[in-house]
Amino acid sequence: MIPGFSARRRFADLSEQEVLALAISSEEDDASIYRTYAERLRADFPQSAAVFDGMAREEDKHRAQLIALHKRRFGEVIPLVRREHVAGFYTRNPVWLIENLGIDRIRDEAAQMEKAAHDFYLRAAAATSDADTRKLLGDLAAVEAGHRAAAERLEAEHLDAEDRDDERAVARRQFILTWVQPGLAGLMDGSVSTLAPIFATAFATQDTHTTFLVGLAASVGAGISMGFTEAASDDGQLSGRGSPVKRGIASGVMTALGGLGHALPYLIPHFWTATTIAIIVVFVELWAIAWIQNRFMDTPFLRATFQVVLGGALVFAAGALIGSG
User: Phi and psi dihedrals of 91, rounded to 5?
Assistant: First the structure.
């Protein structure tokens, strides 16, 4: 291929047979995506899995109709034309990118899949002057609109209000176990455990550069340690806490951020200015921890505030006293 030259063809250059072949391959891809969603959801969200199973069958049915239409008009041999071969054609997000974002995000993606296909065919039909091609593209748009109606019908059949509430509760619990709980533990560890070494160094040396280096090392080291510890502590199979990699990332990143929050002010060369800002950041971090505990862990706000602020104040005082000694 010539460098800088795209091998993708413009949609306007496709023949009617190629447009039909593109629609057939797209229906096949969408059916595969829906079946993948169904398999991912089946264990925790059986009702939504049934919806996606039904949507996949709808795609299969429409694909069969399109193949029959192709046979009548153009014969048995269907050209190999896929989305990635056509410039400007709508694309699908990778399944692995969507499936980890929760049940509501998957439903939204499915709705966007159908809407994107419908809108594209309508725009393509409006852009052509050939009557047969216009009719073909209009028919394809109608098929996609039918998909959306079928999806709504399937949801009405398989998902009532109670089922949706149950699935939301399961999704929220999974989100808390996989992301919030390890992330909160990391933020608490990073924010509190690094207070003593950072402020001890600050008051002992009154050197902002040295304090920053100590804070950076403590934060990054704690983040790596917490991340690997969380990932290795539980594979999530029996506890239901989800992927150890996700939990490790949440814990490690939040631990590092918790420490870096009050280490970064020491990039300011003036000691007391840097220390004042660092102290303010510490209080913000501790209040954030208390809010997260109240919001996601159902801990009473006053109790969470007392525990976190008191613990942080004691660690801060220890570091300041040791550094001033």
Answer: -115, 160
Domains and CATH numbers, the chain: 9-159 (1.20.1260.10), 165-324 (no CATH)
Residue type, 63: R
Looking at the DSSP bridge assignments, the partners of residue 87 are: 10
Asked if 266 contacts 218 with a C-beta cutoff of 8 angstroms, the reply is no
Q: Which residue is associated with the tokens 């709504």?
A: 152
The model's pTM? 0.55
> Tokens standing for 32?
């595969």
Q: Rounded to whole angstroms, how far apart are CA atoms 75 and 160? A: 45
Alpha-carbon gap, residue 173 to 162, rounded angstroms = 17
> Are residues 251 and 230 in contact, defined by beta-carbon separation less than 8 angstroms?
yes
Q: Which two tokens stand for residue 188?
A: 């608490």
Strand (E) positions, 29-126? 86-87
According to DSSP, the β-strands at 86-87 and 9-10 are parallel
CA distance 158 to 58: 15
DSSP summary character for residue 10: E
pLDDT of the chain, 325 residues: tens digit per residue? 344 445 678 877 888 888 888 888 988 988 888 898 888 888 777 888 888 888 888 889 888 888 988 888 889 999 988 888 887 676 776 666 555 556 777 777 777 787 777 887 787 777 667 777 778 778 878 877 776 665 665 555 555 556 556 556 666 777 777 778 888 888 888 888 888 889 889 988 999 999 999 999 999 999 999 888 888 877 665 555 767 888 888 889 999 999 999 999 999 999 999 999 998 998 888 888 888 888 887 778 788 777 777 777 777 777 778 877 6
DSSP strands (E only) in 31-112: 86-87
Distance CA 3, CA 244 (A): 43
Please enumerate in sequence order all residues whose Cβ is within 8 A of that of 321, keeping only pairs 6 or more positions apart, or say none. Answer: none
